[in-house]
Amino acid sequence: MRQICLFATAAMIAPASSLLQSCKSAGAATDETKPYNIVYIMTDDHTAQMLSAYDTRYAHTPNLDRIASDGVKFNRSFVANSLSGPSRACILTGKHSHANGFTDNESGKPFDGSQPTFPKYLQQAGYETALIGKWHLISEPTGFDFWRVVPGQGDYYNPDFINMDGTTEVVHGYLTDLITDMSLDWLSNRRDKEKPFLLMIHHKAQHRNWMADTCNLRLYEDKTFPLPANFYDDYAGRDAAAAAEMRIDNPMHMDIQYDLKMLNPEQTTRLKETYEAFLGRMDAEQRAAWDAFYNPIIEEYYSSDLKGEELAEWRFQRYMRDYLKTLKSLDDNVGRVLDYLDEHGLSENTLVVYTSDQGFYMGEHGWFDKRFMYEESLNTPLLMRLPAGLDASGEIDEMVQNIDYAPTFLELAGVDVPDDMHGVSLVPLLRGEKPDEWRDAVYYHYYEYPAEHAVKRHYGVRTDRYKLMHFYNDIDCWELYDLQEDPLEMKNIYGDPGTEEVTASLKRRLKELQQEYNDPILEKYPL
User: Fold this and answer.
1) What is the mean pLDDT of the chain?
2) Which of 51, 78, 161, 145 is closest to 378 using CA atoms?
3) Exposure winner among 195, 227, 385, 469, fewest CB in 10 A?
4) How far is C-alpha 298 from the chain's CA centre?
């Protein structure tokens, strides 16, 4: 039997496909002798405030911090749609959701894999491409010479993997380890080492319900984490926020058994059966370690009869600990990838990108999850370890967005960037340049309602100082924030005396962006 927390390598299946697409605008050459390799590591729901390169209050992530210390950290990195599948579609296509067709996770409509994506362009340019881990776009991956993905969200323990031949198999182990094992195996044994490569390592971590590896279960139990300043937000003046169903203190939102692991045979909760199915995937050794840790906490919890703020803050502490324990495995495995690149002489010619599909709430506004255009979910970490020839270092303060990744990778590979991509290449920033004309605003649009967490549909614009949002569909309300005076976004100043000029300016900028990106929402809600 595999010992807990050792790394197991699984067998893989390899073959290939490609789709040629034409490009329209000129790209730039990369290295004079050899194109850059790209290792793109993406997690799910990993938020910047839980990454110590950004914020040292909670997390210690030494391996992720290595990427920042050896390269660059983007301080204002945003998503176009704060939801897993849509965010992934924006990244692949370099386009906003309305243009790539994948607006939400609930409709059941698969991502159109026939459309152009940056992996397909890289294939055309002679790159070997691979995707391992979470896909979450309903359709089968395209544009990859090799892929091996988990169905849907995937399982933390002994997960299923879908192979390129259509078969599905259970692979024993902890998912974060396994994705890394498979990625390193591809680098060592599966790729054509004469070709430049794109390797996309997509983790399930840090996705709900934060089931840590058994070797990390006892971490952080002696830690008490400070509450966010707005943990007890009353949502005054923010009707959409008040309607959302993602409060940590509400047992109908954060499930005591599924999310917080307080299994009770005599109690039924909304997500209890799902949690029991997760537990059912464990082998006897894994389940014994799990129960040995959680059973005493379960007994203490049900005998304590906590209420009110004491219960709310107990729930917050359990959430934080589980999240951080899951993060420990992630950080360790990122370290394994960096070590491999160093040890095999690949670092000098390989761009390493670390990001998440969006941010996440860690008790801010009393919440978990994401979706809203508020800073914690709009913002996402973005770290890059740069290959030779790219001279930037330290912090980059220009506003960037996940639609920018595709044109960046194409330019670095010497591939022309198509005119229809909405994003802009970050290569000038990676060279250490300070372009005179850089974007002054980002556009955001969230579509998934009605759905889990009941976050209303909305779109908006964020500038250096201000944020303007419009909630629509079954609601019609605006929110305006001065991020300089109100960084926690607690006071909606829309309609306040004295805000008329800035509101009119932001609405003009919002309309310009909707026209630039050809978002059809402008026809229904003209500005």
Assistant:
1) 94
2) 78
3) 195
4) 31
Work out whether strand 458-463 and strand 466-471 pair parallel, antiparallel, or are unpaired. Answer: antiparallel
Token readout for 328 is 């420990």
The length of the chain is 527
Q: What is the mean pLDDT of residues 472-501?
A: 98
| Cα of 316 vs its chain's centroid, Å | 21
Q: Phi/psi zone of residue 108: left (φ > 0), alpha (ψ -120 to 50 degrees), beta?
A: left
Question: How far apart are the C-alpha atoms of 414 and 30, rounded to whole Å?
Answer: 6
Q: In the chain, what is the straight-line distance between the N-terminal and C-terminal CA atoms, in Å?
A: 63
- Distance in angstroms (rounded) separating the CA atoms of residues 241 and 235: 6
Taken in order 340, 343, 345, 351, the sign of the CA dihedral is: positive
| Averaged pLDDT for residues 518-527 | 97
Torsion angles phi and psi, residue 234, rounded to 5: -100, 0
Q: What is the pLDDT of residues 385-411, one digit of tens each?
A: 999 999 999 999 999 999 999 999 999
Q: What are phi and psi of 513, to 5 degrees?
A: -70, -40
Q: Are 94 and 140 in contact (CB under 8 A)?
A: no
Torsion of CA 208, 462, 444, 508, to 10 degrees: 160
Residue 100 φ/ψ, nearest 5 degrees: -90, -10
331 burial level (CB within 10 Å; 0-12, 13-18, 19+): buried
Which residues, including other chains, have CB under 8 Å from residue 366's CB and lie 6 or more apart? 230, 231, 232, 233, 247, 248, 249
456 token code pair: 């209303």
Q: Give the C-alpha separation, 520 to 493, whole Å.
A: 27
382-385 sheet: strands from edge to edge = 168-170, 160-162, 146-150, 128-134, 197-202, 37-43, 350-356, 382-385, 72-74, 394-396
What is the C-alpha to C-alpha distance for residues 211 and 259, in angstroms, rounded to an integer? 9
Strands in 251-349 per DSSP E: none
From the number of C-beta atoms within 10 Å of its C-beta (0-12, 13-18, 19+), residue 17 rates as middle
Which token pair is 339? 């070590």
Distance between CA atoms of residues 29 and 33, nearest Å: 10
If you compute the radius of gyration of the chain from its CA atoms, what whole number of angstroms results?
23
pLDDT of res. 32: 53
Residue written as tokens 């370690």?
Answer: 289
Which stretch of DSSP H or E encloses residue 312?
helix 308-343
Place of tokens 């089931």: 211
Q: How far apart are CA 426 and CA 434, in angstroms?
A: 11
Helices and strands per DSSP (H, E), number in the chain: 14, 16
